[in-house]
Amino acid sequence: MSARAATASVSPPKRRARRRPSARALAWAACLCAFAAVPFLFDPYRVGQFTLVVIYAVALLGLNLLLGYGGQISLGHGAFFAIGAYAAAITIDRTGLPALAALPLAALASGLAGALVGLPALRIRGIYLALVTLSVALVVPQLVKRFDELTGGAQGMQVAQPAAPAWLGLEDDQFLHLLCLAVALPLFALAANLVRGGVGRALLAVRENELAAVAMGVDLARYKTVAFALGAAYAGVGGALFTFVNGFVAPESFTLALSFGFLAAVVVGGLGTIAGAVFGALFLEFVPVYASDVNEALGGVIYGAVLIACMYVLPDGIAGLGRRIGSRLHGRRATAGSDAAAPQVQTKREEE
Amino acid sequence: MERLAQTIVDGIADGSLYAALALALVLIFRTTGVVNFAQGEMAMVSTFVAWSLLEAGLPLGAAIAVALAFAFVLGMAVERIVIRPVEGRGPLTLAIVTLGLYILLNSAAGWIWGFNNRGFPSVFPSDSLSVGGVDIAVESLGIVVVLLVVVAALFLLLERTRIGLALRAVSTNPESARLCGISVGRTLMVGWGLASVLGALAGVLIAPRIFLDPNLMGGVLIYAFAAATLGGFDSPVGAVIGGWAIGLSEALASTYVDFIGSDLEILVPLTVILVVLLVRPAGLFGRREVVRA
Amino acid sequence: MTTVAPSGQASATVAGGQPLLAVRGLVAGYGPVTVLRGVDLDVGEGEVVAVLGPNGAGKTTLLRALSGGCRASGWATFAGRDLLGLAPDRVARLGIAHVPEGRGTFAELSVRDNLRIGAWRRRDRQQVVRDIDELLDRFPRLRERLDQPAGSLSGGEQQMLAIARGLVSAPRLLLLDEPSLGLSPRLTAELFQLLGELVRGRGVTALVVEQNARLALELADRGYVLEAGRVALAGRADELARDERVRKAYLGV
Fold this sequence. Notes:
The complex is a heterotrimer of chains A (352), B (293) and C (253).
Chain A: H1 3-10, H2 23-41, H3 44-69, H4 77-94, H5 102-121, H6 126-146, H7 148-151, E1 157-158, H8 172-196, H9 198-208, H10 210-215, H11 220-246, E2 248-249, H12 256-269, H13 275-294, H14 299-313, H15 317-329
Antiparallel strand pairs in A: 1-2
Helix pairs in contact in A: 2-3, 2-8, 3-8, 3-11, 3-12, 3-13, 4-5, 4-6, 4-11, 5-11, 8-9, 8-11, 9-11, 12-13, 12-15, 13-14, 13-15
Chain B: H1 2-32, H2 39-55, H3 60-83, H4 91-113, E1 128-131, E2 134-137, H5 138-160, H6 162-172, H7 174-179, H8 184-206, H9 218-231, H10 236-256, H11 267-279
Chain C: E1 21-30, E2 33-43, E3 48-52, H1 59-67, E4 71-78, E5 81-82, H2 88-93, E6 96-99, H3 111-118, H4 125-138, H5 140-144, H6 155-168, E7 173-177, H7 185-200, E8 206-209, H8 213-219, E9 222-227, E10 230-236, H9 237-242, H10 244-250
Parallel strand pairs in C: 3-8, 3-9, 6-7, 7-8
Antiparallel strand pairs in C: 1-2, 1-4, 4-5, 9-10
Helix pairs in contact in C: 3-6
């Protein structure tokens, strides 16, 4: 007579009864308010950090869709971020289009790139896919340097930042922060919807057991490509916002370290959860900084150590920890942690 | 003509270095199924140890020998302390852990030794031999010879010794290996130790050709991955052939293909990886296609 | 709920004195699932003991519990040593050779290497070479395929290889899990004949889990019938073979 069984009998699957806003919805609302309040509470430097958190969160959402839900290991997420950033830079600088047009264009460019990378994913899995995506991550900065007329090459490209409209009465950094938040919000809502709906279920089915998913009629090719395209598109939007905020793009911003950082962040944040993107972004932005504060030279050592320790202690990431604490508070038995990204290994229980 | 010969020699020499690191990757992958992103950094740290010993006054041979011993211990320690606790947890967790180790070791090296470039002496004299009218650096020849000796030694170890048998048993079927009395944990530690020595060897051979700094092995890692992919992640012979193939293609491409030049060299290993994985994922010599565990 | 066959108690030993393997109240399972619910069992030096029972009764779990492959509590000693809680490789080095269900072959390695690994715990190189040679005489098909990868062998050949691997370790106790699994009736008969020669003929102590009750009881000195995680019947093999319940349930009579 587990609590789970009891809940199942109370809320029938098809019809969602109208109930009070859940604790989760409240938490999200609080989070949104907190982020919205940031520009008015802190100095520009701090605001900039939180803006980056929002930007990273958007990119991590994409990686989470790809990896946490779709189960596709990608070591090249930074490349899609870079493509979006450059697409935005080129749009603003070389075309006459308004800055905001850069957003959908960046999403499109990255999404296409993602779909392209997704094609090999149909034939390749696991570490080999990781290697392919790694290659992509390495090639993109090199290509940027090669096509320097378009991209500004190794020196980079200065780009005009979207300016705060006068009637808002905001400073530039405040405006940019709120702009990023405004872009992030619908993207988060979209992601939440996707994962709860058919796409999400299909992706999870693919992640858990490809053979079974195919047997159930999931078009593997379509969903893997969709996962890559979506994940990349999100990263692309993040990249475009990055360009808005920095006003400058250069290949050094998009090294392999960024891709590794994204991967680490999404796992630490919590795979297969929407909240994981936020936790991961916070981790990505603040831990290296604080690690360096503790000791300048040892910053990387601390970051690496924290990363490793997280894997030992928090296999489900911070979001998983939150879920476990939440379950305990509600008196339900906590679900065991496991490697959320690895499909459940079919252990043949030789019960004899 | 001379340029071609020179390019080929350089290519095979560089390829031998990629092959050495690839061998380390393959050894680890075969025995534990882990793709160790930190392999290069472990090699780099060992190379720095050799450098420190040199600075302390040890002759080159002794410094390298001690550094290799250090590398062995380092490899064992990493397996026991870092990898063992998360062993069964799936490829992604392991990937993150080795990435974390990469970052940690890279920064630690920077903290201990600083990020400046420094030189590292070569084991080989800097003369050239004249072979058929072409000047071949002794160092290049020496590197290839060292690699061949290492491969032979590795082969003998794996095929003819007790520990080699244990390593092969554990890499195929750890459960059954246990039932036969093999201590899988200790065997894995030895495997990691050996791989670390291979990497360190690559490090001390690479360092004289470029600068010694914490980012010594970063680029080489990709080439090693490409070599291992081409050769087959579970084939030591493949790692060597793959290494040479990559080294050769890269040397030829960067010399003769204008588009590649010297900054898009990285495209060579990357293209190789892509093509191999699409056409024949197990690689040239690999026996099992490695899918997600 | 333990019914005992008329002539034997769970602790009967053929030779008298302490049994080589003594098990009392063994409780074992996997994670939250408990499969064995209190098993008592003895194996005397030189005996062949069969373990019969339906699927799910816990036969494989029994062997796993003894070789350290699943969680187990209770009491089990081997030659006076505490067995439970030891790691599988420790157990193997004590001289217990567990030939698992599904053979546990090292598929990518050669037949020769499979045998060499089987002899791992032994240090007497020369004798090992002689023993392998002798075993290959008994298993000519293995000798033919000595350098081929073990995974390329047929099911029957792999089973022979697995048994040879177990025997070459010169075990003090051989644990055999379902040797007939996946084999044709003819191969199974052939296999059991070989087992008779190699195990009974040489006085190897063995605990044999087997679905094929008839052949198992022919081979064994004594037997246990496991049902639902407990010992339902125990006794001498010939008496079990005559027992009505056994005949109906397991001998198809």
